[in-house]
Amino acid sequence: MATRRVAKGGRWRLPLILVAFLAISGIIILRRSLGIRTAREITELDARRSALVAERLRLEAEIRAASSRARLQPIAEQRLQMHVPADSQVILVPRTHETP
Hints:
It is rod-shaped and about 125 Å long. It starts with 9 loop residues before the first helix and ends in a 21-residue tail after the last helix. It contains two helices and no strands. By secondary structure, the protein is mainly α.
């Protein structure tokens, strides 16, 4: 039987290529997994931001409604005993011009 001679290092070439392939494949899979997780987080944060914007708009509308004259006038009349003055109660004070 003839013996086959293998070059130095030739015996390790195939296992090294396989290990390198597995390492590169693992890195690619890890990178894609991280990308998918990041995309999911971005989607969740975008949905949360949309909900917060809607909540802010609702609160601004409530503030506008609560600070309207129609809402404040009954409260001022009941709690503070204030009322809208009649025309005879309004006094216009002329403005004096002061020289410096």
